[in-house]
Structure formats: structure tokens, C-alpha cells
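Known limitations

C-alpha cells in this collection are predictions and should be treated as such. Users comparing against experimental data should check residue numbering before alignment. To illustrate the layout, the record for Photosystem II reaction center protein Y is reproduced below. The input appears on top and the generated C-alpha cells appear beneath it.
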Amino acid sequence: MDNIDFRVAIVLAPIVVAASWAAFNIGAAAIRQVQNFLNREA
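Generated C-alpha cells:
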């Protein structure tokens, strides 16, 4: 891992940030939906 090409990191960094942001927002909505479903069943 000494000869890592930083161009790859520069290209992948915004993609990783966008994917994590989307997963965070979608995950929060999904958790709320599951909680609402479980509360409705009880």
C-alpha cells in the first residue's frame, strides 16, 4: 500500500461521501418506517 495512486482516492472520495450521505438519510427514513409499522402492529 506504499504506492497508492491518490488520483483514485480523489475520484472516489466524492462518491463515497455522496453514498454515505444518501445511506444516512435513507436509513433514518427506513428506521422510522419500521418503527411505525411495529407500533401499528402492537
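For this record: Helices lie at 6-41. The chain is about 85% helix and 0% strand. Please report discrepancies through the issue tracker.
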